[in-house]
Amino acid sequence: MQILDGKLAAQAIKDALKLDVAQRSNEGKKIPHLAAILVGNNGASETYVAAKVKACEETGFKSTLVRFNSDIDELTLLEEIDNLNNDPDIDGILVQLPLPKHIDAKKVIDAISPNKDVDGFHPASVGKMVEGLPTFIPATPYGIMLLLKHYKIDTKGKHAIVIGRSNIVGRPMSILLSGNSNPGNCTVTICHSHTTNLKELCLQGDIIVAALGIPEFVTADMVKPGAIIIDVGITRVEDSTRKSGFRLKGDVAFDQVAEKTDWITPVPGGVGPMTIAALMKNTYQACIENN
Ligand SMILES: Nc1nc(=O)c2c([nH]1)NC[C@@H]1CN(c3ccc(C(=O)N[C@@H](CCC(=O)O)C(=O)O)cc3)C=[N+]21
User: Which of 5, 117, 119, 231 is catalytic?
Assistant: First the structure.
């Protein structure tokens, strides 16, 4: 068993970006500037957004955090997005999800200018990704591709089982892994809550991407020896021995599965940090393309 160390790979990506930004700065060119919108004060969202702002600081990007109370009305949010769309200093805009129920998240995402859509959630970005054209790729699946690349994992011809069909992870992941470049060129099976023979399918997987949000769902009996395991789960479970009162659990029962696998991502320290690194790459790309 070997660890796919997302913290390490993310650091390497951020270090490279930092050099690129420093060079742009020396040449008098514009520095990347990310705007993050956070609605309400959900604990997990606070953590993730704080991590994004910190990554900007580490890498020499500018960042602006726009905060709203959870009772904000949709129109005000749409107006803020319009302001950011029209602000030439802002290169990338992200609206942290989930949004409160009274706000139509799709409407909000669709309001972001596609050339600032560093989350890659806009239909224009999704369409390009499906066609295999250059675009912003959603940060989590993009981060996973970067992690596989960092460790020079050969995915060609492998059977990848993606568990979960969300628009932000499972679906884009299945498209990227089946794509015609490296990493990619996989045969992909996408599984979800209505899949009847999940265990049998998982046992065929050379690669398993677990992105369903159920802690320790993937157990050793579901995994083929030597498989590559990508754990996207980050559920907070109560832990009174921790200062925070919780700890993170992945969608994979790590200890038992790790014994059977070739490569596996830990939680924390796997896909999470790569998600942030991928967002930074998208923001840098937006800055280059828009200036
Ligand atoms: N518009 C939008 N874009 C997103 O990219 C987005 C989002 N909304 N909503 C929620 C999910 C989740 N997400 C994570 C980011 C970093 C970690 C991360 O850094 N995790 C650390 C641990 C952090 C902790 O201690 O909780 C780790 O796994 O090692 C995890 C999850 C981005 N998301």
Answer: 119
